[in-house]
Amino acid sequence: MNNIESFNIAIAETFGQCYQSFPVRVDISVVDLGAAIRRAQGDESSDIDMRQEEYEIARESVKWLIDAGYLWHRNATNMDFRSVTLAPKAL
Question: Measured between alpha carbons, how far apart are the two ends of the chain, in Å?
Answer without folding.
Answer: 29
